[in-house]
Amino acid sequence: MSLKPSDSSENLILPVSDPPKDLDGERHHKADEKLFKGSAMTKRGANAAISYMTCAVLLVLFNKAALSSYNFPSANVLTLLQMVCSCCFLYLLRSWRIISFTANESLVISDNSPTFVSLKTLRHTSPLAGTYLLYMIVTMESVRGVNVPMYTTLRRTTVVFTMIVEYILVGQRYTSSVIFSVGLIVFGAFTAGARDLSFDSYGYAVVFMSNITTAIYLATISRIGKTSGLNSFGLMWCNGIMCGPVLFIWTLLRGDLKMTINFPYLFSPGFIVVLLFSCILAFFLNYSIFLNTTLNSAVTQTISGNLKDLFTIGFGWIIFGGLPFDIWNIIGQLLGFAGSALYAYYKLVGK
Q1: Domain of life of the organism in this record (predicted)?
Q2: 216-230: b or e for each residue (b if 16 or more CB lie within 10 Å)?
Q3: What burial letters (b/e) apply to 168-182, b meaning 16+ CB within 10 Å?
Q4: Which of 84, 161, 274, 303 has the most CB atoms within 10 Å of its CB?
Q5: Which of 134, 79, 108, 94 is nearest to 8 (CA)?
Q6: Which of 133, 131, 142, 282 has its CA nearest to residue 209?
Q7: Tell me: the pLDDT tens digits for 297-345?
Q8: Is 29 within a domain?
Q9: pLDDT band at 88 (very low <50, low <70, confident <90, very high)
């Protein structure tokens, strides 16, 4: 069966925005059905959230292994390598016509275009590319700054920043049930971090900066992802070709590339395996972030990150350590997970 794009509705498209509609304007994509009767979340939305959580847990651990266990000198170079690998994957898949970059087959750009998308589309997605670059750089640095369990604890406060940004940008309002669940998450986060004996002011500051950039990035996805005509692959491609050159120049000027060349474990088999998995997981994580944010919401994307933290914290304690056992930390973690579970429940039942 040919994989060449056409106007046929039988072609497999992986949209970030709304699914295709029939002649009467009704959605007919079976995967877009509600998760269950009365649910506010679709089956596609639930699958996107689960995929994100799986990729996020694994990527944090592999990034931490590269930056801390192997002491890789530059988070920026790691980000650049992930971006280059993602662009290579996308270029090959698009050239072989396995994927499309648009949410509507009739909008597919001719393969004669060197970038696969129009310059007008690139200009339209440039704000997203800028916030993506800032988000990636700050987030990668924040992983190095604190231990894995405390990193995930502080990152849980991202949901507050996300709600504020969504309110400012689109006037999004939330029910009292959602506000209560978010308040429980934040209270649990501060309870868990109150007795952290490995306090690092710089590390904590970077994590909170990461929270702010994440909120702006997710809100930008929610807006531009629905108006650009691109699916998640197209948005990732635009980010890569616009952010890649900027990040390369930045690492060159900072001397990060020179440090990487002199890195003693650069050709170590163990480090190469860690680096390879980090790049592959970054590709799938970016895709799932775009899909989850647009199919659900920026806040749901943030809550999905909170729910997956149970596994991240457990693996972080086992593999990397760094957080002394403390009863208040345990209580805070449980409160945070309870708040995340409540939000997920309210999302499912539509409250």
Answers
A1: Eukaryota
A2: bbbbbbbbbbeebbb
A3: eeeebebeeebeebb
A4: 303
A5: 108
A6: 142
A7: 667 766 776 667 666 666 666 665 555 556 777 788 788 778 877 877 7
A8: no
A9: very high
Higher pLDDT, 149 or 250: 250
Helix 148-155 and helix 176-193, axial crossing angle in degrees, nearest 10: 150
What single-letter amino acid sits at 124? H
Q: How much is the mean pLDDT over the chain?
A: 74
Q: Retrieve residue 225's tokens.
A: 């992802």
Question: Per residue, what are the HEC states of 35-100?
Answer: CCCCCCCEHHHHHHHHHHHHHHHHHHHHHHHHHHHCCCCCHHHHHHHHHHHHHHHHHHHHHCCCCC
How far is it, in rounded angstroms, from Cα 139 to Cα 215?
12
Q: What is the pLDDT of residues 237-256, one digit of tens each?
A: 888 888 889 889 988 888 88
Tell me the two tokens of residue 301.
């994307």
pLDDT at 166: 76
Instruction: Give how many domains the chain has, as a whole number.
Output: 1
Note whether residue 65 is domain-resident.
yes
Q: Assess if residue 288 is contained within a domain.
A: yes
Cβ count within 10 A of residue 107: 15
Verdict on whether the full-model pTM lies above 0.70: no
329 part of a folded domain: yes
Range of the domain at 139: 47-101+111-349
- From the centroid of its chain, how far is CA 74? 20
Rounded Cα distance between 66 and 266, Å, is 11
